[in-house]
Amino acid sequence: DVKVTQSSRYLVKRTGEKVFLECVQDMDHENMFWYRQDPGLGLRLIYFSYDVKMKEKGDIPEGYSVSREKKERFSLILESASTNQTSMYLCASSLRQGIFSETQYFGPGTRLLVL
Amino acid sequence: AQKITQTQPGMFVQEKEAVTLDCTYDTSDQSYGLFWYKQPSSGEMIFLIYQGSYDEQNATEGRYSLNFQKARKSANLVISASQLGDSAMYFCAMREASILTGGGNKLTFGTGTQLKVEL
Fold it and tell me: What is the predicted pLDDT for the residue at B2?
């Protein structure tokens, strides 16, 4: 079974703090994704990566950065957390590019509260 | 314009009955794929079913089927014989050919439908 794990299920941070959200997948997937999920807005793509050290902006990258130093690990960084970044963050991975039917596998999510 | 539209924020269904969750999409691509995911209260997204734009048959997976009407750009999820465990948030998503390569297989998601199954 594919397993995508996220470092924390719940996180509480203060405004201005630097926040790291870690995601690890164990199936040698090429692609990894970070989404945020907010009520009434669905899932919105923040950043994704299709190879080590490669990253591309998604639909809402402002206020976030990412790092992928190893294939299995994709980190989301909030350089200076703000209250409007309080949200559920979901990490996902998929095997490779170019396959229409390729599903994404999701981690359990991290609920981040910024005070 | 929204690429994926789910017009039902919440739905109720009686146990053992069938329920249809609506999804319409907007794309100018001829090649695309449509997905449905389930998100229980635990938070993890679970893949349910996939339909390709060139698939002639509607996709089915156990109690899940996808009512694909290409001309109307709709891809409704049908759950037959609902169970209490089907209570969850359901998301429709699309992958388009125009962003398939170099785009890391991006998916665009709808806003979701919260389904509650009642006794």
Answer: 73
